Amino acid sequence: MEVIIAEHAGFCFGVKRAVKMAFTAAESKEKSVHTLGPLIHNPQVVGRLSEQGVEKVDSLTEINDGIVILRSHGVASPQVAIDAKSKGLTVIDATCPFVTNAQRYAKLLVDEGYLVIMVGDRHHPETLSVLGHAGGDILVTEDFDEIQTWLNRFANKKRVGVISQTTQTFQKFSDVVSLCLKLCEEVKVFNTICYATEERQDEAEKIAREVQSMVVVGGKNSANTTHLADICRQEGIPVYHIETAGEIKNSWFNGIQRTGVTAGASTPDWIIKEVVEQLQKVQ
């Protein structure tokens, strides 16, 4: 079976930066090191960090001293870093710069009096961090009906700002922007989708058109990996979202001559390599 591997797969800039910060902090061995929430959405990487002494906690109340790393998705509000420093903790901010941009643009739109819509998953930690930094009401949704209902509630306020979760699909984001342009008098848009996300999505779509099945590698809790799988499914082929090579079943590829492989932005190279090697053994 021929295996077509996406050129742009695996760690993006923000994830690579965060992981490097965490491993560097662990090397010091002088202080305890914790991440506030999982550093990235990849259980295997989080596991390796734990082996190096970097432990995940859910709250600052669980840390009394040492280093705390703010996760790549950002934290719930700017107050978190202030509280950490007030406890005497050393704070390492590993928030992805693209998430920081989304936080900044959300606050700008709120401060300028726009009704703000964020295209994304309202329960995702990145989204929660953007909301916490914005300091005002934001509608987070992917649902057109919900957007229309919300805008109708504010019929006298048709100045709308639109941003996106950094891992959202460009198509869904542009569809929401188009809807707002039809319904509102003024629309201010910031494209806060990470360039690495767009790059991986475009490439996954292209490969999915050329193969008979796709394997998408990455954390099951990873939004950008899930979106990659969804994009590939739109091409009408079997798509398998896996975290490790151990999940692969040879029966998936009966009668398949060409399969494609892509991976989310939080998937390390060593996992991608293991998956490709396993696929190349399929007869």
What does the model show?
The protein has helices spanning 13-28, 43-51, 79-86, 97-111, 125-134, 144-153, 170-183, 195-208, 223-233, 269-279; strands at 2-5, 33-36, 54-57, 67-70, 90-93, 115-119, 138-141, 159-164, 186-189, 213-217, 239-242, 258-263. Helix content is 42%, strand content 19%. It has 3 domains: 2-10 and 195-279, 4-hydroxy-3-methylbut-2-enyl diphosphate reductase, catalytic domain (Cobalt-precorrin-4 Transmethylase, domain 1), CATH 3.40.1010; 13-95, Rossmann fold (3-Layer(aba) Sandwich); 98-189, 3-Layer(aba) Sandwich (Cobalt-precorrin-4 Transmethylase, domain 1). The chain has 10 helices and 12 strands. It has a 4-stranded parallel β-sheet with strand order 1-12-10-11, sandwiched between helices. The chain has a 4-stranded parallel β-sheet with strand order 3-2-4-5. It is α/β, with parallel strands linked by helices and 283 residues long. The mean pLDDT is 94.
